């Protein structure tokens, strides 16, 4: 029961994290790049106020639940769950040491003016964003594998695995 609950929490939180990062990479970043720089800086600054809370929470729940799942499972499931947890921790580290310092600079620019090399700095922010998106999506994909393995490990029956998991 604990394993199923942890798997569900891991899938939900990591899916939300991967989805949020993917949405940002696919929609927000191109929008940032198509508006005037002062509008981008203002919006980016306001967005980071909300993201600081929600994204860190999603990363924490995702990493902790995947690592707890690894502690409770055996064999290949343990390795997969630990890998997902470490990928989420990697997303956090990229965010903390890549994106967050640049976000601080963007906040300063919004109050003053951006430096001459702002385009290069924003490009670096986008590279960090792409990297953390990839690690979050990879963590979600690995947890899907864990869920599929868990469903296939159910009792031998002609009943579909998804129905057996729903009954548990």
Description:
The chain has 168 residues and is mainly alpha-helical. The chain contains five helices and no strands. The chain has helices at residues 2-34, 37-72, 75-111, 118-152, 161-167. It is elongated, with a radius of gyration of 19 Å. The termini are close together. The relative contact order is 0.16.
Give a quick summary of the entry.
The protein has 168 residues and is mainly alpha-helical.
Q: What distinguishing features does this structure have?
A:
mainly alpha; 168 residues; single chain; 0% strand
Q: What is the oligomeric state here?
A: single chain
Query: By helix and strand content, what is the structural category?
Result: mainly alpha
Mean pLDDT: 90
Q: What is the rounded distance between the termini?
A: 8 Å
Strand content: under 5%
Describe how the helices and strands are arranged:
Blueprint: H1 2-34, H2 37-72, H3 75-111, H4 118-152, H5 161-167
Helix pairs in contact: 1-2, 1-4, 2-3, 3-4
């Amino acid at each position: 029961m604990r394993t199923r609950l942890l798997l569900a929490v891991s899938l939900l939180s990591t899916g939300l994290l991967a989805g949020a990062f993917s949405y940002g990479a696919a929609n927000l970043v191109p929008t940032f790049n198509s508006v005037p720089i002062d509008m981008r800086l203002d919006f980016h600054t306001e967005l980071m106020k909300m993201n600081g809370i929600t994204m860190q929470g999603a990363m924490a729940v995702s990493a902790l639940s995947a690592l707890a799942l690894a502690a409770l499972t055996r064999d290949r499931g343990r390795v997969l769950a630990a890998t997902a947890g470490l990928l989420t921790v990697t997303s956090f580290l990229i965010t903390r040491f890549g994106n967050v310092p640049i976000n601080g600079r963007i906040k300063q620019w919004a109050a003053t003016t951006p430096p001459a090399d702002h385009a290069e700095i924003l490009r670096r922010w986008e590279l960090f964003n792409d990297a953390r998106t990839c690690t979050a999506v990879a963590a979600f994909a690995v947890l899907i594998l864990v869920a599929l393995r868990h469903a296939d490990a159910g009792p031998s029956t002609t009943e579909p695995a998804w129905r057996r998991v729903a009954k548990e």
